[in-house]
Amino acid sequence: MPVIRISRARRRAALGLTLAALAVGATTGAGPATARTAARAQAAAAAPAADCGAAYRIEQKLATGTTWRMCWGYEREAGLVLEHVSYQPPGEPKPIKVLATAKLAQIHVPYDDGGNEYSDLTRAGFGYGLLDLTPAECPGGTIRTVKLPEGGDPEHRQVKGLCTTTRSRGHAYHMQSDQNGRTYQAQGKDLLVYTVNKVGWYEYITEWRFQDDGTIHMNIGATGSLSPYDYDAGDGRGWPVGKGAKAYATSHSHNVFWRLNFDLDGSSKGRVEQYDSQVSAPARGQQGPTEKTTGTKVAKELAGDARNSRWWRIVSATGKNKDAHPRSYEIVPGATTKYLGRPFTKHDIYFTEYNRCEQFASDNLRNCGAGHGRSVDAWVNGQTLTHPVVWVNVGFHHIARDEDQQPMPVHWQGFSIAPRDVTAMNPLTPPALADQNGHVRDGS
Ligand SMILES: [Cu+2]
């Protein structure tokens, strides 16, 4: 279909890729030899982060006393990769390991008319599309140079493309004391790490935000321009953009996947738990409805669906906080519109047993052997979870609007992970309240 060809050609032309790069992009995964080459290229690209020389180290002590440490790397398809992420709030004697690796695992973009379906990471040059940042868009921070893997535009290999900076986020807490009337408040600080990658007319901001209270947010912001080749006035699957009702920008989805490989307290042997709460009507003699929360161990690989009053956490097999509670991180879903068109987009979260060959939620470029399957849904096949990998799917159905031009305002989608019992108290507790752990009684 000519529409597809024009559209893809344009997207690639916009990236300035060489023919050689196109050939690699078009054939990776086609056979064992090319898949191995791709795997080697990915490994080579990510290698510097493994032992993390100074150029690849990010260390930020925030004004509130929390230090985040990590290594960054850059892969040809996934772009920015964060490794060895640790968190050290005030009062903790050493860094607490959180994530072994964290990165994007796909941006799947199907158009509503069925004409185009893109895998922006693995087939459309996301990694090579890294853009230079101006000092103004990394306020108060540092812009680092990223060396892109070979195979793209040789004139575009050193990119000032990684910003690390800090930002205030408003109140970390507020409390007026019953005892002395004093108000305790703190203004929270975050470390931000981000890149901007161009894929055709779209530009994706990959943002990682590390709060001083241990919460991590991962978000993708879509901006740039609507694709001028995906307008169709005829089929009723778009929204009129521009004067009158002549040009309809074709509606489409951005289904973004993240891959998180935890190593809480330095061990990959995490346990996954799912919690569900059930509300019941008041029984005789009760004032109000009751609610019962039940935790279940997720022993085997799972394709999970978000639901009201449902959540998951990854629990450390080894680490405990000072209250002797196992350390864990809770997965906090973000707003999502689940796209039901493909098996791999049908679930909100996947827990799979670690397999180095499984790197992308869909269109996995590696050759993992016959019958292995190329997307995350296929990897949920009953294995016992001893080293869980977490895949999170957050979708956005983009029905364009007049305001989307020009440039298109950033639309964010993503989720968070929040510490649960990583520290024994609020990690930012002021010294005057440090003894208020547990059941605090009046006048104590
Ligand atoms: Cu869009």
UniProtKB/TrEMBL annotation:
Contains 1 topaquinone per subunit. It is an enzyme of class 1 (oxidoreductase). The keyword Oxidoreductase applies. Its EC number is 1.4.3.-. Topaquinone (TPQ) is generated by copper-dependent autoxidation of a specific tyrosyl residue. Keywords: Copper, Metal-binding, Oxidoreductase, Signal, TPQ. Gene3D superfamilies: Copper amine oxidase, catalytic domain (2.70.98.20). Residues 1-35 form the signal peptide. Residues 52-427 form the Copper amine oxidase catalytic domain. Belongs to the copper/topaquinone oxidase family. This is Amine oxidase. It comes from Streptomyces carpinensis. The lineage of its organism: Bacteria, Bacillati, Actinomycetota, Actinomycetes, Kitasatosporales.
